[in-house]
Amino acid sequence: MFVRSPCLYLLVLLVIWTRDVNGGARTPFFDLTVYNDWPQFEDYIKGVAHDNPSFVQLKTIGRTREGRPLLGVRIGKPALPGKRKIAVWLDGGNHAREWPAFHVAVYFIEKLVNGYLSDDKITKYVETLDIYVFPVLNPDGFVYSRTSTRAMIRQWRKNRAPENCTGTGPFQTDICCEGVDLNRNYDIGFSHKNYPFNNPCSDEFQGPRPFSEPETRAVRDFIMSSEIYGRLYALVSMHTHGQLWILPYNYQKRTYPQDIKDLEILANRAADRVFAYRETKYRVGTAADMLGTATGGATDWIKKNTPTKYVYVLELPPDMKTWFAFQVKPHWLIPIGKETWLGIEVIFDQVVEETKNFQPTEPTTNGTSADSRSPRFRQL
Ligand SMILES: *[C@@H]1O[C@H](CO)[C@@H](O)[C@H](O)[C@H]1NC(C)=O
Ligand SMILES: *[C@@H]1O[C@H](CO)[C@@H](O)[C@H](O)[C@H]1NC(C)=O
Ligand SMILES: [Zn+2]
C-alpha cells in the first residue's frame, strides 16, 4: 500500500524513529489476539532472529517425526571473551492441544526483544543472561490439532508417531493408535508396567522405550550439549491448564530434590507476583502430590540429570475446575502472557542475583556422562 496522507507518512516516520530509540529492536508481526497456525510460529521465530542479529539467534535443535524443525531463539548479548553466561530456558511445552502455552511463549519473546534498551529490567536480562525460548516442542501434534474441530483431533495431545497395534480399550485388545506423549517419554521412572502409560491408545502413551521419539531426543541432546550444559540455571515449561506451579519430582509421590525448599520459596514468590496482577491464583507443589504420578516427564528428567536448579512446569489458566479448557478464548492470551511474565521476572531476578558470583562449569559432557553428581555451579 502507498502512503498517501501526510499524516500517515509522519506516523510511519515516528514509528521508524521510535524503533531507533529502541536500539533497532523489532519483531515481526504476530497476532496474539487469535490462535495462530504453525507457519505463523515458524515465520515469527525465524523472522525475529533475522531482524535482530546483534542479540537474537535462531536455534534449530532437531526435527520431528514428520520433518518439521524444532525451533527456538537465544536472546542475549554475546558473552565477553573468555566468559560463559548463565542461561535460562522458557518453553511452550510439548502437548499438541495446549495452544495458549505456545502463544504465551511468543509473548515472552515479544517482551524481551521489544524491551531490550527500552526497559531497564529487560535490558539487564539480555545483557546478563542467555534466554532460550522454544515456543512449540511438538509442531507435528500442533499442526494435527489445528486440522479439525472434532474432539479426537482438536484435543490431540501426543506427537504423530506411527500407529502401534498393541493398544487396548474397554473389552478390546490389539487396537491400533498413533502418537506418543512426549512428556512421558523421558528416561525417568519409565516402566512397561506403568498403566495407562504403557497403552498405545492412551492419551499418555509413553512410547516403546525412553527417548524413542526424535522430539525428546532433540531436547535431551541440546540440554546435554556443551552449549548449555553447566550454565542453564532455570527452566520453565508451560502447559495448560490448572493454575499449578509444579515442582519436581512427579514420577513418584512425596519425592523431592534436595534443594526443594529453594524451589518452593521462589515458586511461591513468583506465584504471589502473578496473583497481584489480576488475582490469578496458582497452587504450588509437585503434580505427583497434587494430582497423581506421571513418569517420563521432561522437567523431572532435566532436574535429575543436570545441575539446573530452578525447574518448573506451569499449568497456565484457567483453573482446574474449568473442564476441557485447553483453548481459552483468544482474548485471554495477552492477559495471561502479562501476568505470567511478572512471575518469570521474579525468577530471572533471583537467577541474576544468585549467580552474580558464579562461574558456570566448563562443558565436560557430550551427552552421556552427566548425572546428579556432576559438578554444581562453582562459586568463585
Ligand atoms: C508398541 O507398544 C508396546 C507397548 O509399549 C511396545 O512394547 C512395542 O514395542 C511397540 N511396538 C512398536 C513397533 O513400537
Ligand atoms: C564423547 O563421546 C565419545 C563417544 O560417544 C567418547 O569417546 C568421548 O570420550 C566423549 N568425550 C567427552 C569429552 O566426554
Ligand atoms: Zn501439557
UniProtKB/TrEMBL annotation:
Keywords: Carboxypeptidase, Hydrolase, Protease, Signal. It comes from the Eukaryota. Residues 34-351 form the Peptidase M14 domain. The active site is at residue 315. Its cofactor is Zn(2+). Gene3D superfamilies: Zn peptidases. Residues 1-23 form the signal peptide. One of its GO terms (cellular component) is extracellular space. This is Peptidase M14 carboxypeptidase A domain-containing protein. It comes from Caenorhabditis elegans. The lineage of its organism: Eukaryota, Metazoa, Ecdysozoa, Nematoda, Chromadorea.
